[in-house]
Write the structure tokens for this entry.
Amino acid sequence: MHLIDPHSHSRRAFLRRSAQLAFTGVALPTALNLASIGEAAAFNAPDGSYKALVCVFMYGGNDYANTVVPYDQASYNKYSAIRTSIALPRASLDAMVLEPTAALPGVQQFALHPAMTGLKNLFNSGQAAVQLNVGPLVVPLTRAQYATSNRVLYPVPPKLFSHNDQQSVWQSSSPEGSTIGFGGNMGDLALAANTNSLFTCISVTGNAVFLAGDTALAYQVSPNGAVKINSAGGDVYGSSAVKSAMGQLLQQTRAHVLENEYNTVTRRAIASESTITAAIGANAAADARPEFAPFVGITNNSLASQLKMVARLIGARSNLGAKRQVFFVSLGGFDLHDNLLANHPTNMKRVSDAMAAFYQTTANLGVANNVTAFTASDFGRTLTSNGDGADHGWGNHHFVVGGAVKGKAFYGTPPPVSVGNTAAADDQWHVQGRLLPSTSVDQYAATLAKWFGVEASEMSGVLPNINRFGVAGGRPDYPIDLGFFKP
């Protein structure tokens, strides 16, 4: 079985079973304490340091070729010849050229989509990097190996090119139905570093397997703040007496163990809502703070609203008792089989504006070096056009942003601009117009996890396939640390 390493997960399997058996309010804290004692050593921070990872997920499969665009004349000519009706005009890219500290091989250049001025400026000033051609892999894989039928030696990620499954594989290494994500696995390790462990993993965009751990819970907030239990937070049927009665019913101790556990969870939710609300303050007050000025003027951008809430939570980290946190935000609308040229620019601007404003806000808060945001998506899209859009792909280009990032640089292998229809060396990384990833999600995530504080001995418990890469997997050409953080 390639997706699960039973030796690495033996402790996690034990903890999962403990949690499954912990139906009462007594047993569950015991399971949580076992997790904290055994797995949080890497996150003890005697110097009081804080770190946060923020996953920015682009649902639908972002189009890599019109995001990080081949710009040098030879590459652009190939790109425009293949993309025909959906290629961006080269003149529109002139002001968007990325200027890495170390030039790419030959004269190869890239530019960002014309709507992405914020991320372009962050890249060229050294606060952002581009990881080229990253995607899910079970083992390192060439095009020739992918073409064989031997899936024992050359396994591929399950259910390739399926939206739901590849969203889950990106977040958890397993297809739809997975219950544990790599953000949650990091959260498991970080629980003991935080005074209130409930605020270790926080989603501002609803449920996501990325934040689910064996013991860490994905706490959800909205872009406007903590989510309230209506019957406990306001008058019911216009009656304060009914509200009071409902509050007692929801929180009182019960004799039946299941009823009592339900009310224990409810009490925790009500207390947590009060803690969050008090820590972040009112929206109007936050809007008036100069630290959050980078978000002023950004409208019709749900991603910016989510990232602003993440920034507010980070700003309140001391009141929340947080030393290590993992956040999840998202934006949809990237499944552009049609109308790519018409609809893609809007989302590119939203991503760029939101991430640039978020970075500047972390700088204003004095934590830019302690917060790293990174992008992810179901998959890339085909380089070939289907007429008005592009179809489901595999590999993709992604952004890493933060003060700790060794920016102004590309990481990974620049893919040739080709559709992969010949046996030529230039077609090594292409499968029917799709990029075959030259960097795995596990490598990408391991680099982020190492910066966050995960020890080498804990890495396989966070990322089940990681030991198939790097020196441990006999593949030093697929390094576990991709190098996009400063020493």
